[in-house]
Fold each of these.
Amino acid sequence: MIVQNPTRSFFLLILSAMTLTNCSKETPPSESNEFTGAENEVKLMTLNPGHFHASLVQLNDMAQVDPLVHVYAPEGPDLDLHMERINAFNNREENPTSWQTEPYTGEDYLQKMLDEQPGNVMITAGNNALKTEYIKQAVDHGINVLSDKPMAIDSDGWELLVDAFESAEAHDVLLYDIMTERNEVTSMFQRRLAQNQTLFGELATGDPEHPAIVKESIHHLFKTVAGQPLRRPPWYFDVNQQGEGIVDVTTHLVDLAMWGAFPDEIIDYEEDVEMLDASRWPTVLTREQFENITAMPEFPAYLQDQLVNGELPYYSNGEMLFTLNGHHVHISVVWNYQAPEGAGDTHFSVMRGTRSNLVIRQGADQEYRPTLFVEPVSGEVAAEVGEELERVVEEVNQNGYPGIQAHPSEHGWRLEIPETYHKGHEAHFGKVAQDYFDYLVEGEMASWEVPNMITKYYITTQARELALEESQEFEE
């Protein structure tokens, strides 16, 4: 079932008006799309940066990236906040950056970027109702795209995204999303250990009550980023513009499930995925909480019809159950207003094997630091699992990760990973960007990346459809 979204249609109408004078024009790749790794050859264009992730791509200088960045966006608070963040990077005491920003703020900002093309890579992180169309327009005009997640928030958007990938291939440009969580060190080692049959065995099949893979995360709407209180735009709380939680952070968790359990494998959404169940529920925000996050004293007009007794039920929470290659997977995302004192965003992950389970915990007992545990499924294999873990730890100590140790825990072993390997969410953006720039030099991505991006967004958008169906049945 495809649910039409009237608000999204309104935004696409605006986009159509912006591009009407050139809607059929497609620009072939230019010579600037030939990359060698040379200094300053990557020239960024940032389009309508409404989300703080747009700035985190520029958290640090990169030799391959020209310091002059062109920004195309409408005037307003979204652009102002983006410029403040970039200026803060330039003026910080430790390791200041040297970005130069040239903004264009006309109402025809999208068409202006497509016509001028002063850069060869477009960064987009903002209003998700507009993002998929931005992506499609850019690749149609021969522009490489590095996009924040999610690249699609509903089934209509997913179909357009599939078209965008086809266009990117036809125009010889690369379209890629920013999957920062692949660079979180415990996720990296969970993936690595899951490929060790002596230690992990085979991935369990699982069932709906005991999935083979569990990925859960808790996030917070009011928090600090890059040392400053995070100011979110008011449209962030309109699910017609931002998308519901079930299609947002879940993108990372679905990606980790596919990437961690089936590395370097193509997962076909038609053959290898079965959607089983999904649900959604709101985090209710008071007017005062909304003001704390957005600095707006009242809910804007486009949220008024969503209010219940003067408060906003924000559908930021969701869960889904599906199978990958026959293995059951459970994904869950919760957004609370604010973390308890001393706490932060948390991640819980389980990969169940026939010999051991690989568990990432990030609760109070771990001082809110992601920590990886290896837990044998029975006493019969515990000794062999422990010996193999000892061998693996010695190997990784000698090959790029000195200082990692395995210590006994209640159900097996806990990996102690030195703090230096915990780079943090903000630093991961630069790593993903550099990986993408390396792909540009190579002229291609791994063969599984594009089909798995298509599958990933199929899963999240189909989960939304299932959750909406469940909500409607409950209301009836």
Note: The longest strand covers residues 273-285.
Amino acid sequence: MYPQQELDRLAAHKVALRLKIARRRDSIARATRGVTRPLAWIDRMLHWWRQTPPLLRIAFVPLAGALGRVLLPRHRTLGRLLRWGPAVLSGLRHFLRPSDRAA
């Protein structure tokens, strides 16, 4: 039906195409792991934070502020984030939460 040369050429092309797909798949998997690594860390920290008792959470805020001033005295952005972050997050939760009044 097909000449043997054509079949051999198609088989070689198929092998090369499969190798190219495997290399792309590996590079995409590596890139995905690199992107999701910080997200996994944030997820672990959120899980840890939700497991901590409320009194420890209250004590953590001033301790984090003091530790931030000691470790990073010149970085004002971190201090602002620690100061205003909880207020901004609670405000966002309020606006993003479905309203009970909606009918």
Note: The helical segments are 4-51, 54-71, 76-96.
Amino acid sequence: MFQGSTIVLLAVLAALLPVSAQDVGGQRPMENVYVRPGQPAQIVYVAGAVALPGRWRVEQSVQLWDLLAVANPSVVTTEGSQTLEDARVLVYRVNNQGRSLVFDESMESLLTSGSASLRLEEGDIVVVNLIEITESTSVGFREIVSIVSSVAGLAITFYALLTR
């Protein structure tokens, strides 16, 4: 699902971008900051499967991808497991009818499409959800033989009972 290079890219971006969200006195800060000095800022919120959830003071021109790079989504997939975790990114925005969903896309397609350039607005809520998807199990030759022999055994038993 995710290539190793994608995760490395996210880690490098997180290390290089201007973020001030370190522990203060052993406690998490009340606000994460992603804004250069002198730039106009706005408040957005990040929740879900990210390393740095909470209130974020960001530049007014910040794009969804930039914020995700510093909030550090906790997307993990393991090879050989029976389940895959698919991350969905949701953005809720206040409009005339209240708060509504304005963006809903999988993390995988977000990485490959241009939709990550969505500009965030004041009060937006960004949610990263991990959805567990169970892989379909395939039926092998042994399972088919076992089922056929069980059905045949039941048929023979019923025939023997009916012909007595």
Note: The beta strands are 32-34, 41-48, 54-59, 83-95, 98-106, 125-134.
